[in-house]
Specification:
Order of helices and strands: HEEEHHEEEHHEEEHEEHEHHEH
Shape: elongated
Helix content: 25-40%
Distance between the termini: 77 Å
Number of domains: 4
Bound molecules: zinc ion
Keywords: Plasmid
Largest sheet: 4 strands, antiparallel
């Protein structure tokens, strides 16, 4: 019997209890514990279950063994191992994810994962990814955003300064420390093109902006010091704000004109520490031509003395 064995309660089983038990998928076996309880045998699995006679008469008694098998099956379908129910919230269960971590999820979600409608993201593994992203930029991820913006987290810089930063900016490195680098928006910056060789031998081009492209290439983007990579071109832009806006325009234009040149992250993430903005090598001449035009425009703006006002 599921749970502890209960003492027999020496009394006859009323015929209407036995009849009701049969209709609900059980055989009435004997009275147990006290005059309110009865032991049933599940037709489906053959296991014993004790229930209150009231439950038998008014509800459908549930067989814990069958229920457990159903849960095991549903968890397995979702690629998980069912561990136990959450005693405080019956609609939640605890599961062992494929990575080995324990996750708590609603049953409804488990069924949707099993049906292939959604995926499962392990919080522990995901946190490790975000922590590594922050470390790569010289920051420590402290926690969620104190202002509760889903896109932001709280970080601490090497200098000790704490700051809310959008996670996307931590991934791209497009932010500065409010304490030791407050001026990136106003300070001069560069739009650059870089070439990387991937492990499959193909070359790709990264287009971006940075106050210091050489340092960005060597210490942030290239995952290994002997990575085959080169800075192809860098165009000086009057301010970081303007560089950001120009760079966004360039990406939008390239993605629209050459969508097939955008390289999937899986192909470059082991070589380049960035999430996007990588193009196939054959686009290199086009990108360099855009940068030449940009350089000419910047030069004209500088000569006419409007370089700082055209942000
Ligand atoms: Zn059963
Ligand atoms: Zn995990
Ligand atoms: Zn700092």
């Amino acid at each position: 019997m599921a749970g502890e064995a209960l003492p027999i309660h020496d009394a006859d089983i009323p015929p209407q209890w036995a009849e009701r038990a049969r209709r609900k998928g059980y055989d009435a076996v004997c009275r147990v514990k006290d005059r309110y309880h009865i032991a049933l045998c599940c037709h489906r699995c053959g296991e014993m279950v004790s229930v209150k006679a009231f439950t038998l008469m008014n509800n459908r008694p549930r067989c814990p063994t069958c229920l457990g098998r159903k849960w095991d099956g549903e968890a397995q379908q979702a690629g998980l191992v069912f561990l136990r129910r959450d005693p405080r919230h019956t609609q939640y269960g605890l599961f062992r994810a494929g990575c080995g971590h324990e996750v708590r999820r609603q049953w409804e979600l488990i069924r949707r994962i099993g049906a292939g409608k959604v995926g499962l993201r392990c919080e522990t593994c995901h946190l490790a990814i975000e922590q590594a992203e922050a470390r790569a930029q010289g920051w420590t991820r402290l926690g969620t955003d104190p202002k509760n913006n889903q896109n932001y987290r709280l970080y601490r810089h090497l200098c000790g300064h704490r700051q809310r930063i959008a996670r996307a900016n931590v991934q791209s490195g497009r932010f500065g420390c409010g304490h030791c680098d407050p001026g990136w928006i106003a300070a001069p910056s560069f739009i650059y093109a870089m070439r990387f060789q991937l492990t499959d031998g193909e070359t790709v081009v990264k287009l971006g902006f940075s106050r210091n492209p050489v340092s960005r290439l060597r210490f942030q983007l290239a995952r290994s010091l002997d990575q085959d990579c080169a800075l192809l071109q860098q165009i000086r832009i009057a301010t970081g704000r303007k560089a950001l806006s120009l760079e966004k325009q360039l990406h939008a234009r390239l993605r629209k004109t050459f969508p097939e040149a955008v390289v999937a992250k899986e192909r470059f993430e082991s070589v380049i520490n960035v999430g996007s903005e990588i193009y196939e090598g054959w686009l290199e001449p086009v990108i360099l031509r855009h940068l030449d035009e940009l350089a000419a425009r910047e030069e004209r703006a500088r000569r006419s003395g409007r370089g700082r006002e055209t942000d």
